[in-house]
Amino acid sequence: MQSNPYVHILLGYDGQGWNDPYVEIEAKALIEDNKELKETFWNDHLKEWINSPDDPNYVLLQLTPENIRYFEKAGSEPEEL
After folding, report:
1. Per-residue pLDDT at 73
2. What three-state secondary structure class fits 33?
3. 29: Cβ–Cβ under 8 A, 6 or more apart, which residues?
4. How many whole angstroms separate alpha carbon 24 and alpha carbon 54?
């Protein structure tokens, strides 16, 4: 992430077909290492994968969106949000 902090997030497309609506988000990501924030966002559902909020494998990402586009279906013109 140090050499390229930019991420692409795809929401809503569940793979059922080309006509599924979806959202694309382009964002800049930063690793948030604030202990208080980690404890705030921690919940017991995470224990299946991560031991505790102090686990070094538990990280929070701060995402700053730069572009957000909504597509009614694949191939449609995007609606810029």
Report:
1. 74
2. coil
3. 1, 5, 6, 7, 61, 62, 63, 64
4. 32
- Report yes or no: 59 and 52 within 8 Å, Cβ to Cβ: no
The structure tokens 């586009």 sit at 69
User: Would the pTM of this model clear 0.85, i.e. be above it?
Assistant: no
Give the sign of the dihedral formed by CA 70, CA 72, CA 75, CA 80: negative
Burial class for 8, CB neighbours closer than 10 Å (0-12, 13-18, 19+) = exposed
Amino acid letter for position 2 = Q
Rounded Cα–Cα distance for residues 72 and 35 (Å): 39
pLDDT by residue for the chain (81 residues), tens only, comes to 889 999 999 998 776 767 888 899 999 999 998 999 999 999 999 999 999 999 999 999 999 999 999 988 777 788 887
